[in-house]
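hey
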């Protein structure tokens, strides 16, 4: 695939519909169309945007959040489904790469999941947030490292992390080591206040500098009416304002357009891919500026499973006796496979 020299990227800061997955999905499809008409080849949506981020869990105690938690289960996205197919169709029709955050339902659990749809509609990445943050641990299960990978797309090599995963330097390094060119960042937005936006800006600009890649970050927006619907407590409502930093950052750590910090909008900027080499010739954190013989990352990239069915029978030592009469328990086997050993009688 021929590398693109310029990629037009878009980041959407819009409000979900807090009453319906289908209504939020309609907003997603409408925004994809709008961004495509402006020439965007990539669009990024906020964290768990479909059906909505679980803001209720931030302001309600667990004993009072059950009804909203169950409602989130009912509106969550299964993969694959008609919802994911609708996004795939939009990506294919408009020839645009789509990064979408969803609440994924997998039987009895919910997960914070990032989906990347290539320009032909194929899902090229499905990953789950490895560690939900603080209140989120009451809502979502944990992901694994199988999603910590960089994938090839129509616009270049893409990696993705959600929210405070960006505070995990080893998770970021795993993507850096795979030479990501465009990093997808997704945060909920409309939380915590201005300090959250300031911290977010520092985080995404630092990753752009350290990785030598572009960062496209999207945060969500809540209207005043939506905030009141989440909690009538005016003191708690303060926790659901601010914290928006929809931004597009260059490998030199610069904003490529003024960020969106309040209200709704679509941020668009052109990514000059030559800036990656310009940055990395000075400092390549996983290349000439690395010292892997001193410091390197070891990652278990296997997908975790609650059960592994095995047809292997247990092996005894009766047929493996060393010359000294003791059982030989050495063999080339999976370290997780237990071997039954029969000891010789003591002499």
């Amino acid at each position: 695939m021929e590398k693109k020299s310029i990629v037009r990227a878009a980041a959407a800061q819009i409000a979900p519909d807090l009453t319906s997955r289908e209504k939020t999905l309609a907003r997603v499809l409408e925004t994809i169309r709008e961004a495509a008409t402006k020439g965007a080849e990539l669009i990024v949506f906020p964290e768990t945007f479909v059906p909505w981020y679980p803001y209720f869990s931030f302001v309600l105690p667990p004993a009072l959040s059950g009804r909203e938690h169950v409602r989130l289960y009912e509106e969550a996205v299964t993969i694959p489904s008609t919802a994911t197919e609708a996004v795939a169709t939009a990506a294919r029709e408009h020839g645009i790469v789509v990064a979408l955050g969803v609440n994924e339902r997998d039987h009895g659990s919910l997960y914070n999941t990032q989906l990347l749809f290539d320009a032909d509609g194929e899902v090229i990445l499905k990953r789950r947030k490895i560690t939900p943050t603080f209140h989120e641990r009451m809502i979502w299960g944990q992901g694994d490292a199988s999603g910590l990978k960089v994938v090839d797309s129509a616009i270049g090599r893409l990696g993705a992390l959600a929210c405070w995963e960006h505070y995990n330097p080893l998770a970021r390094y795993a993507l850096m080591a795979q030479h990501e060119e465009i990093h997808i960042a997704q945060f909920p937005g409309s939380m915590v206040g201005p300090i959250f936006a300031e911290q977010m800006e520092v985080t995404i600009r630092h990753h752009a500098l350290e990785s030598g890649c572009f960062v496209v970050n999207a945060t969500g927006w809540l209207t005043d009416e939506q905030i009141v619907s989440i909690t009538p407590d005016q003191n708690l409502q303060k926790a659901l304002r601010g914290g928006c930093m929809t931004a597009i950052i260059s490998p030199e750590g610069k904003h490529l357009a003024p960020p969106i910090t309040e209200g709704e909008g679509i941020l668009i900027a052109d990514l000059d891919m030559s800036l990656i080499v310009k940055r990395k010739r000075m400092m390549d954190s996983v290349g000439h500026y690395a010292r892997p013989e001193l410091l390197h990352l070891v990652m278990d990239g296997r997908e975790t499973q609650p059960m592994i069915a095995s047809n292997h029978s247990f092996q005894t030592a009766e047929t493996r006796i060393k010359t000294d009469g003791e059982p030989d328990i050495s063999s080339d086997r999976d370290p997780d496979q237990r071997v039954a050993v029969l000891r010789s009688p003591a002499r």
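Residues 126 and 173 are 19 Å apart (CA to CA). The radius of gyration is 24 Å.
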